[in-house]
Amino acid sequence: MAYLEPSLFEVQPEQIFQFERHGYFVADRVDSLPGSPVFNRAVTLRDTWGKIASQS
Prior knowledge:
Elements: E1 16-19, E2 23-27, E3 39-44, H1 48-55
């Protein structure tokens, strides 16, 4: 379960978004329905802070 801005409930299939701190997502072309979007992660973001913290 996730909380979305109201504008995301009306996305079109295959529209691309960046969700802050999580990566890039695309609206699923088969499972997304008006008012019930489904997003698939296309690219994750690198976590350079985790590497810096573990080296200290």
